[in-house]
Amino acid sequence: MATAPLEGLNWFWIATELTAPPVIAVLLALPLWLRDQPILGNIAGSIVLFGTAFALILREHVELDRMSQLCLDAGTTCFPHPAAFTRFAIYAFIALFEVIALFMLSLRVDERRRRRGYDPQWR
User: Fold this and answer.
1) Does residue 42 contact residue 106 with C-beta atoms inside 8 Å?
2) Does the structure show a pLDDT above 80 at 40?
3) Is residue 71 packed enough to be buried (19+ CB in 10 Å), middle (13-18) or exposed (0-12)?
């Protein structure tokens, strides 16, 4: 029966969102940060993080629709557990916290870059 994917979370995709997009976002933002463009770096990294979350939410939505349709075709009704909103919120909150971490890292990079021009005695 097609109800197995409707139970529980898909940990593979959650782990993927936790690992790959932050690395890509930092690699994309770092050259911009170092060229004195912190806002553009933050925007570029945020686009990667939120874009990945949006794509994973859409993937989850399509998968849930497909599984629900299979249940309906079999003549039964089945509901995902946890609910679709909860699944979508997990991806959205992960992306939100990743963007916050990206902005905090941007502040650290900018602070170090700014302090680099001073003598060590004056730091």
Assistant:
1) yes
2) yes
3) middle
pLDDT tens-digit readout, 55-76 = 999 999 999 999 889 888 888 8
| Domain range summary for the chain, segments of one domain joined by + | 21-111
DSSP readout, 55-80?
A: HHHHHHHHHHHHHHHHHHHTT-----
Tokens, residue 119: 């003598």
d(CA 65, CA 85) in angstroms, rounded, equals: 13
CB atoms within 10 A of CB 113: 14
Residue 98 CA, distance from chain mean position: 6
Give this prediction's pTM.
0.86
Half-sphere exposure (Cβ direction) of 85: Cα atoms closer than 13 Å: 0
Quote the CA–CA distance of 27 and 59 in Å, as a whole number: 25
As a whole number of angstroms, the distance between CA 65 and CA 69 comes to 6
